[in-house]
Amino acid sequence: xxxxxxxxxxxxxxxxxxxxxxxxxxxxxxxxxxxxxxxxxxxxxxxxxxxxxxxxxxxxxxxxxxxxxxxxxxxxxxxxxxxxxxxxxxxxxxxxxxxxxxxxxxxxxxxx
Length: 112
Hints:
The chain is an all-alpha fold. 69% of the residues lie in helices and 0% in strands. The protein has one domain (2-111).
């Protein structure tokens, strides 16, 4: 339920300034930041981060609200978790294959 709600908020806040202000005035910033603190692996994190980014567009009041409720450290935590996860994943094979080929197969393949 959180993922569709966060996606809807991201969309609502992407264009109209009154929507961004309404989210802040109704406790939306604190709610979004609280959900970020639940862990960076939850499926709604991308939408929550997008919502917070959109809420902050051209609004010093909203930027201040995000900062005051701990949004900056929460966003940095999500970013660091993502970077750490990506660095631990093995790189894909250079040739796009999903399985490594042996030397003999490579030699035979180059003869054709």
